[in-house]
Amino acid sequence: MSINSLNTSISYLKGVGPSRADLLKSELGIYTFSDLLNFFPNRYIDRTQFFKINQLQQNSSEIQIVGKITNIKTVQQKKGSRLVATFRDETGFMELVWFRGAKWIKDSLKVNIPYVIFGKTTYFNGLFSMPHPEMELVADYKKNLRSAMQPVYPSTEKLINKGISNRVVSKMIQSLFEELNGNFKETLSISIIEELNLISKGEALLNIHFPRNQELLTKAQKRLKFEELFFIQLQLIRKKLVRKAKIKGFNFESVGINFNNFYKNNLPFDLTKAQKRVLKEIRKDLGSNAQMNRLLQGDVGSGKTIVALLTILIALDNGFQAAFMAPTEILATQHYNSVIELLHEMDVTVKLLTGSTKTKERKIIHEQLQSGELDILIGTHALIEDKVKFKNLGIAIIDEQHRFGVAQRSKMWQKNTLPPHILVMTATPIPRTLAMSVYGDLDISVIDELPPGRKEVKTAHRYDANRLSVFKFLKEEIEKGRQVYIVYPLINESEAMDYKDLMDGYESVTREFPMPKYQVSIVHGKMKPADKEYEMQRFIKGETQIMVATTVIEVGVNIPNASVMVIESAERFGLSQLHQLRGRVGRGAEQSYCILMTSFKLSADAKIRLNTMVETSDGFKIAEVDLKLRGPGNLMGTQQSGVLNLRIADIVKDAQLLKTARNVAIETLTKDPSLKEVENLAIRNTYQQISKNSTIWANIS
Ligand code: ADP
Ligand code: MG
């Protein structure tokens, strides 16, 4: 068979036909022979194992038992009747139950003759029962040949209702194998297969659908998972190499007066080792003639902003402008204020552009940008609007990049004749394994060290019932001159319920902390930007001691004197959000605290989240737990990435294999960048095939 037959429409397969083909397309996305071949079971039932009745466990999966029916009775119930048979083996007895078809089943059952029964058991009142078991006489069971590991394919209700059961799918795949006659092209090189001790492609496909035994199934899974991850990595790394070789970038060859003056006179502290290392990595990129596309990861408070500013100054030194984009107005304003302060007495023009910038000011900004008078533009999404044109944009910094969509980020690329250098920053650490898949085509820098002298934030979990003692503690801290955040969940901006919680909370706080002794600020998403800013400023200046807020303060806000973070209904927040919120305190010299308030009713997941927060402040550890709890698809910033639509591999469970795949991909491309060696012919063919067929790659960063 030629390779083309894999592209044959599924409707030509024996046993399929047009109407089934339509269902396969709409329900499972199976269009061709190849799609069906790569439609893998999501689990297997081990039909080699038998249970005894006294070994049964509550909530077990499908099992099989050998025994005999000793008694059959019909039980009348409100609607119709049900058939109940007593089933015994030498260790005990259980019941088999039928709610439908009782009449004809009753006639077909044989008493005192050994059966193999198969199905799920339920447990009630000390008795196990199996509803609607699959049954076969032991004599027949022995005659039939079957695969020991029975594959179970993903399915949908519609498919089942239309009669496309698991057995039907299995049959289709069987005729597919007959049709293809075992001709499967190898996709990997011999040296990779040998080095990793993999089985061949053909053997893997056969055993994933019809496993001969557990060992071969495991080998088939390993081979196919590796292959899937390998080709993803190969594409990501190749893309990165191509970008480096082809996409020319502005060459920032010199470090000049701005950078040097700042470093000598204005830098308020010594950089940490990690900040210096990252800065070196960035400088190397900027002077390499290629466009920089780098992700800077660093835990909350690790000091990414100063790295961003130094990077900007290098751009300025080379005659370029810089853009610095943040996801919220509060954060953009804060960046603006701190940049202005850091650059004091330097001859650099900085402006702020957000949704609430007045038309007149906006016009001035547009003009200054185009004339080149403006050096640094800081702002929100407003920065990427088409109207915003630079004379010579050299670098774009995107803070908290997971808050931006891929499309928004890529708009930055079009702001100059050559794409500007891009530095994206994130304080939501994603586990390395995931970063490799999602951001595999970016270079990654990590600030893995906090500035010296930071005290770890003491974190405690308290129940609502203990609120009074929490308030007492807040009063003591305020007495010492500290400031307090109290944050309410606002999961859905439009949900009236959440606002009610916030307002009720605000009221009870003002009652407990009355004026004039205490001043309480409130900030939430429905306020006008100017009002928000006014309240923020009061808190920053220390005029108010308590800030009641929603998660608008989650990202980036930096107020060193605020040392207590109270999170209300903490069970409703995700781990990364809790971590971000906690990162708002612990920024000054004082001991800081984070108090997680919850009701007594907590889900198992919520308990894990709260315990994790109490036990660790390491963002990477927290991210690992988050990944395990929620699965990779739900992590911030990864949703749009098609990279996670894997057929067989699992980024969490197969993290080790992913690392191997990445290393092998790097090794392969290092030795043979364009895959033109004879040895890599199979890889190249597959690679080209995948690149042609897949659309997901267009979505990566
Ligand atoms: P993030 O990485 O979360 O954006 P920031 O850049 O806001 O962190 O920095 C957090 C705080 O740490 C700021 O107040 C900043 O001035 C301070 N900081 C940054 N780097 C250092 C350093 N090397 N030594 C001391 N303080 C630093
Ligand atoms: Mg920041």
Can you describe this structure?
- This protein is an alpha/beta fold.
- The chain folds into 4 domains: 48-145, OB fold (Dihydrolipoamide Acetyltransferase, E2P); 214-247 and 649-699, no CATH class; 257-286 and 303-426, P-loop containing nucleotide triphosphate hydrolases (Rossmann fold), CATH 3.40.50.300; 458-616, P-loop containing nucleotide triphosphate hydrolases (Rossmann fold), CATH 3.40.50.300.
- The strands form 4 sheets. The protein has a 7-stranded mixed β-sheet.
- The longest helix has 33 residues, at 214-246.
- The two termini are 39 Å apart.
- It binds adenosine-5'-diphosphate and magnesium ion.
Keywords:
701 residues, 24 helices, globular, OB fold (Dihydrolipoamide Acetyltransferase, E2P), binds magnesium ion, DNA-binding, alpha/beta, Helicase_C-like, seven-stranded parallel sheet, 17% strand, ATP hydrolysis activity, binds adenosine-5'-diphosphate, Rossmann fold, disordered C terminus, DNA binding, 40% helix
